[in-house]
């Protein structure tokens, strides 16, 4: 019941597939196995525009089999745990995989259960979310039905994938309500556990102007802890220890608390916060040199975005191959991440930054200005680059 592979990659999402493709392009003879139970692969950045009624959700879904790199072994199973001293991955069915090197790219876990009262109501009763394929269409349906009342958008107190997504859908909602002629009967409210609208001041400044222009109410350091569907109330704890905030809603867009997958949190690979503990520059595990990690489940102090993985994956692959060959690890990741901040239909601020909030812009113009060209890049350009470039190891 034990298989051995030279390199085992846990996770067949953006990070896992990108790393596998890079490794096999570098050496097609490598024995690489990808552990991934899902048969579908999703381009999640478009879910903002699905929730805003621009696209159907089906265009974000492809068959996983079409993106497993040629030469890789696909193991359709769930991971139960890790034994890095024995270089072993334990699967839920009782089987084991052994490896020479391990890449943990297991993504992030959505902890819906941490919000009291939510179970059984997500996707209906005015409660919606862009954070799953199953619920993303409920956002547009709920928004279309709204004629008055509060549209409340949340942001949890945990790290999340795509930290800009909670406010992107809010800006689209504001635009839709104005187009529908009911904005004067509605309040758009951002209730966020973050201390401000965005963590990098270079982009926070123009975003504050967007919020002001749109007349959006903001409540910061407020963490959603409970929903009361019968009363249509959302309950937020104050992170500074103040009184709880209770908001009525007609639409409640929920962004769930998130964490590393449970099998990562309880493993010897995890740090105190539960993430795979790696060096922030090399992505090599700090205690187990044959283990690497990138993407959402890693301890990298970078934004959890596909753009970050686009930079991480080639560096990790190069470092892993150098380690296998007994060579020094020289590749260093600088924390680059990108957040295409949709500020309305046809408008986008393109935020690009690295560790410490260092601005790392690509284009020779002020990316803080709302532009249609950048919106078109997000809506039409980046998906093609993802499917045909990044997942093929070419970008």
Structural features, described:
The chain has helices at 14-26, 47-51, 136-145, 165-179, 201-214, 262-265, 306-324, 372-388; strands spanning 2-10, 32-35, 40-42, 61-63, 73-75, 79-83, 88-91, 96-104, 109-110, 127-128, 149-155, 186-192, 217-220, 222-228, 233-238, 245-248, 251-253, 258-259, 291-293, 337-344, 347-353. The protein has 395 residues and is of the alpha/beta class. The protein has 2 domains: 2-108 and 260-334, FAD/NAD(P)-binding domain (3-Layer(bba) Sandwich); 116-258, 3-Layer(bba) Sandwich (FAD/NAD(P)-binding domain), CATH 3.50.50.60. Strands 1, 2, 5, 6, 7, 8 and 19 form a 7-stranded mixed sheet that branches. It is globular, with a radius of gyration of 21 Å. 48% of the residues are buried.
List the helices and strands and how they pair.
Layout: E1 2-10, H1 14-26, E2 32-35, E3 40-42, H2 47-51, E4 61-63, E5 73-75, E6 79-83, E7 88-91, E8 96-104, E9 109-110, E10 127-128, H3 136-145, E11 149-155, H4 165-179, E12 186-192, H5 201-214, E13 217-220, E14 222-228, E15 233-238, E16 245-248, E17 251-253, E18 258-259, H6 262-265, E19 291-293, H7 306-324, E20 337-344, E21 347-353, H8 372-388
Parallel strand pairs: 1-2, 1-8, 2-5, 8-19, 10-17, 11-12, 11-17, 12-13
Antiparallel strand pairs: 3-4, 6-7, 7-8, 9-18, 14-15, 15-16, 20-21
């Amino acid at each position: 019941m034990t298989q051995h592979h030279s390199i085992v990659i846990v996770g067949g999402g953006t990070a896992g597939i990108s790393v596998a493709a890079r490794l096999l392009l570098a050496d097609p003879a490598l024995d690489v196995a990808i552990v991934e139970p899902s048969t579908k692969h999703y381009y999640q950045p478009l879910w903002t525009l699905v929730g805003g009624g621009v696209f159907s959700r089906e265009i974000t879904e492809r068959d996983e089999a079409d993106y497993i790199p040629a030469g890789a072994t696909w193991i359709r199973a769930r991971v139960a745990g890790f034994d890095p001293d024995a270089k072993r991955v334990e699967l839920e069915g009782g089987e084991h995989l052994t490896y020479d090197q391990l890449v943990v790219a297991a993504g992030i876990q959505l902890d819906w259960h941490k919000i009291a009262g939510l179970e059984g109501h997500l996707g209906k009763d005015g409660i919606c979310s862009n954070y799953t394929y199953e619920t993303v269409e409920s956002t547009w349906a709920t928004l279309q039905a709204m004629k008055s009342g509060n549209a409340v958008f949340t942001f949890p107190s945990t790290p999340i994938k795509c930290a800009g997504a909670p406010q992107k859908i809010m800006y689209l909602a504001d635009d839709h309500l104005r187009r529908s002629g009911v904005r004067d009967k509605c309040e758009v409210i951002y209730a966020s556990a973050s201390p401000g609208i965005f963590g990098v001041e270079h982009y926070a400044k123009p975003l504050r102007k967007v919020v002001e222009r749109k007349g959006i109410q903001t409540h910061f350091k407020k963490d959603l802890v409970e929903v009361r569907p019968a009363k249509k109330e959302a309950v937020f704890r104050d992170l500074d220890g103040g009184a709880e905030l209770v908001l009525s809603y007609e639409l409640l867009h929920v962004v769930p608390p998130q964490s590393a997958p449970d099998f990562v949190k309880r493993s010897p690979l995890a740090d105190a916060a539960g993430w795979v503990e790696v060096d922030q520059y090399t992505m090599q595990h700090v205690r187990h040199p044959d283990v690497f990690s990138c993407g959402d489940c890693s301890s990298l102090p970078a934004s959890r975005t596909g753009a970050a993985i686009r930079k991480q994956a080639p560096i990790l692959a190069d470092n892993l191959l150098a380690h296998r060959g007994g060579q020094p690890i020289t590749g260093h990741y600088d924390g680059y991440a990108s957040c295409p901040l949709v500020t309305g239909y046809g408008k986008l601020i393109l935020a690009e930054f690295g560790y410490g909030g260092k601005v790392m812009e690509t284009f020779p113009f002020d990316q803080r200005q709302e532009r249609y060209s950048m919106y078109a890049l997000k809506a039409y350009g980046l998906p093609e680059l993802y499917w045909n470039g990044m997942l093929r190891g070419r970008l």
